[in-house]
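Dear support,

We are seeing what looks like truncated structure output for some complexes. This example has two components. We would appreciate it if you could run it in full and send us the complete token output so we can diff it against ours.
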Amino acid sequence: MIIELGHFALILALAAAVIQGTLPMIGAARGDAAWMALARPAAVAQLFLVVFAFCALTQAYVTSDFSVLNVVQNSHSAKPLLYKITGVWGNHEGSMLLWILILALFGSAVAVFGGNLPPSLRARVLGVQAWIGIGFMAFTLFTSNPFERIFPAPLNGEDLNPLLQDPGLAFHPPMLYAGYVGFSMAFSFAIAALIEGKVDAAWARWVRPWTLLAWAFLTGGIALGSWWAYYELGWGGWWFWDPVENVSFMPWLLGTALLHSAIVVEKRNALKTWTILLAILTFSLSLIGTFIVRSGVITSVHAFASDPERGFFILILLAIAIGGSLTLFALRAPSLKAGGLFAPISREGGMVINNLFLTAACAAVFLGTLYPLFLEAIDGSKVSVGPPFFNATFVPLMVPLVFLMAVGPMLPWKRADLAGALVRLKVAALAALLVAGLTWYLQTGGPILAVAAMGLAAWLFIGALVEWADRVKLFRASPGESWRRARNLPRAAHGMTLAHAGLAVAMAGMIGSSVWKQEVVTNLKPGESVEIAGYSLLFEGVGKLEGPNYKAERARFTVTRGGEEIALMFPEKRVYQVKAMPTTEAAIRTTFFSDLYAVIGDADGQGGWTVRVYHEPLVPWIWIGCLAMVAGGLTSLSDRRLRVGAPHRQHKSTARPAAA
Amino acid sequence: MTRKRRRLYIVIAALLVFGGATALVLTALDDSLDLFQSPSQLMASPPPPERGIRLGGLVEEGTVLKSTDGLSVSFRVTDGAQSVPVSYKGILPDLFREGQGVITVGNMGPDGTFVAREVLAKHDENYLPREVVDALKESGQWQGEATQ
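Here is the complete output from our reference environment:
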């Protein structure tokens, strides 16, 4: 019964979205205040209905209601409660419902907190939000209904894919979706601005916090997914340039560009048209990211079960959303008034360069990800584009960007003195040389490029800190004075330093783990040991273990270094009984500087086991750096300026509405 | 600084960055593409050894042989019509089983054995790599939709 009510609630939510997407839009065009005001209650009603639908499905999962097809296919009564709940979005239908829920949350946030938005802009933003909602709810109801019943109900379910029964992946989809959907706000504001024919600093002040929030979520989501791949897949890698990873990375690249160009619109009233275009493209890539994984059009190592039947609906949806918004952009963008001027060497100039490199990198990833699709459409041959392509294109584009990342924040707005900025960076240059020298000294036989890359990471890290230290007059004024200055500094400035330094740390981690990773694959009998990077792992044998819904074989290793016992490691091989599917559980011993990573394979039938051991230097830095980036985003978000929002509309900068 | 001048600078910078990116993409695409082939295609026209190949099909029943140390393995990949011997050194994926779909990435050796540097098995019960499905359909061995 509750399931039917949930289904009905979703249909009502679709109806609410249709009202929200039409009447307020017409109202805004006609200047009818009452019709415009309809958007807010409609958005809130939509949220309540979607929350109800989501709770109904969750309830079916928690109580293991096997008369619901979706629960049968993705759950089992023996599954731990946490994974019963996360199983709701561990499948296609449920994850669509989660998408709709997050969209409704964002929409109602504008409705509730958007009191200081001009009524016509608010009505139009909510209207566009509703259009997106209509597309997704129609898709879910017509092609992927999670509320479908099955008769007769089976006694038990087919269980969730064991790889997904993991805390890291449990929260990866909600984070990732919050990022994807968060960019819908920038998109809605962009479309609304195009319809209004008006973009100004106040508009940017509204767009920026939503973009920041989405960016922070997406960063966290990608990092969480990468961390999961690292410890769960048992391959010792954290990024495979798999299409599924790439499609989440592309909106991140463009979202990062958008984050920076929105600052220029806000502070200098320039780059307006470009920012609108970026907002449209970022969300378009989020849509592609959501759908490409599910449509089965691209072969991926870790795709969900795919269903080509949905492909057609998806294609139509993408064509309307992306084609429609770009057409609107082409029609209306020329009527937007051009903004402020700036010299090539200036903060604005730096942001332009940042945007150029990020979009070029995104284009390269896009090409590499979709090239197999294009080629198959043209001549039918099937190819795959592997990591070498991305390493050869993406990395060279990032090097100049990271180099300039330390310089950009030193440049003042409008017109800057490049020599002056470089002089301020001499400490960073010194640090870069020092780190490069140290790397050179420590590594044996590694590539020279790695030395330069570590130097570059140090350059960015110290460069970011120098900029911050200059602003608070660290060591040049009394500590009290520096403290006062640091407190008066806008939160956004702290956030930038944190995010930039975080990227430097993550970068060092990525370099370290790719260049100095060591791997030993061998066959061990109990009592034998394997040596790696100064550690010795003594294999003591394999025991049996029983989990709630799996059986496991657990190996025991004693780790010694210099004859001293430092740790025990227990890698497992699990077989989940319902799906009869084996998974590998790596044992990882982490220190601040490196991970020791052990996996067991199959028994050879003569008392020996295949064992794979990795030594991964600096991997923990990747996670630390990503955390710092998320923290930087959230710190910026707490800036007072962004909370004050739109009331200070600048009269001089507003353009005439091109048409009404 | 006029508006036109500024636009010119931006256009030049954009051309430089995107031109560079295009050059990188073109050179990289040339030597990092792996071509998907079914066993029938591979036997019909053996590619040169330096060509990266993704060989997809089913692991033929009864052909999986492990070396005594358990590190090297050889098996045959079949699409029902033809089969190709494959050798691989390393740990096999968890879901590698006889009779199941598999994709091996590597090169064709001069002796007619495919040397795999990577072996990918399907990821869960319901999922078979699309390329493998197509290859099976082509050789007439496709048994209909996987169990749903």
